[in-house]
Specification:
Number of domains: 1
Order of helices and strands: HHHHHEEHHHEE
Largest sheet: 2 strands, antiparallel
Strand content: 5-15%
CATH architecture: 3-Layer(aba) Sandwich
Shape: globular
Strand order of the largest sheet: 1-2
CATH superfamily: Periplasmic binding protein-like II
Number of helices: 8
CATH class: Alpha Beta
Structural class: mainly alpha
Length: 209
C-alpha cells in the first residue's frame, strides 16, 4: 500500500489478501546500514534507531492517523490523495473497482507487539527459505542472516527510553496463536499473533532440514 489501492481506484486491479494472511506478523521495512558504519558511528546509529522507534510509537496513536495521511500525501512524498493513504493506516479498504469494502484489523502495526524489534529468528527464517530455493547451504545462510539483525544494537539504543524490550532475541516463529505476554525489560509486553498460513512453525534452534 498505497499502490494496491491506487490500482483499485484506477479500475485495473483488485485486492485479494493482505500480507498478514500469509504471515500474521511478518517483518517488513528495515533500517539497514553497513556493520562497519554502525561500529564507527555508534552515537548516530543509536539516534537513528531511536528516531524510528519514536516515530512508530507516534504512528500507533489513532489520533495521529489523519495528520500522518496528510503529511504523506504531500507532493514531495507520495503525492496522493490522503484518503487513499488512510486506507492502509486504518485498515479500511476498498478491495475492488465495484466498491466492495473490507476491514483488515492490524494491517499496519508500527509499535505494539515489539513491532520494530529485529528478531534474529525472523532473519533465520528468511535465510532458510531463500537457501532452500537457491541451493545455498542452509545452516551457513542462517548464521549469516542472524548476524545481520542486530538486536544488540537495538537494545543498546533504547536502553534509556523505558521501551518494553523482549527478554529474548529469538523465538519460535509461527507459534503464537493470540496475543501472548512475554518477559520484558520494563512493564508487560504482549507479542501479537504470528501464525503462518499453513500453520507450520519455525524453530531457529532446530537442525536445518
Amino acid at each position: 500500500e498505497p499502490w494496491g489501492s491506487i490500482a483499485v481506484e484506477q479500475r485495473v486491479g483488485s485486492l485479494l489478501l493482505p500480507g498478514k494472511a500469509i504471515w500474521a506478523f511478518a517483518p517488513e521495512k528495515v533500517l539497514a546500514v553497513r556493520s562497519e558504519w554502525a561500529e564507527a558511528e555508534p552515537g548516530l546509529s543509536s539516534r537513528l534507531i531511536r528516531a524510528v522507534w519514536r516515530a512508530g510509537k507516534w504512528l500507533a496513536d489513532p489520533e495521529a492517523r489523519v495528520l500522518t495521511a496528510e503529511l504523506l500525501a504531500r507532493p514531495e512524498f507520495l503525492d496522493l490523495p490522503p484518503e487513499i493513504i488512510d486506507r492502509a493506516l486504518s485498515g479500511n479498504f476498498t478491495i475492488s473497482p465495484q466498491g466492495e469494502q473490507r476491514k483488515t484489523t492490524g494491517f499496519g502495526e508500527f509499535h505494539q507487539g515489539a513491532a520494530t524489534f529485529p528478531w534474529r529468528s525472523q532473519a533465520q527464517w528468511i535465510a532458510h527459505q531463500l537457501a532452500a530455493r537457491t541451493g545455498l547451504d542452509r545452516a551457513g545462510a542462517m548464521r549469516k542472516a542472524k548476524s545481520v539483525f542486530r538486536s544488540d544494537l537495538y537494545r543498546a539504543a533504547l536502553a534509556a527510553t523505558g521501551a518494553e524490550l523482549p527478554g529474548a532475541s529469538s523465538k519460535i516463529e509461527g507459534s503464537i496463536e493470540s496475543k501472548t505476554p512475554v518477559a520484558c525489560s520494563a512493564g508487560k509486553l504482549f507479542l501479537n499473533r504470528d501464525v503462518f498460513f499453513d500453520r507450520h512453525v519455525f524453530d531457529p534452534d532446530a537442525p536445518p532440514s
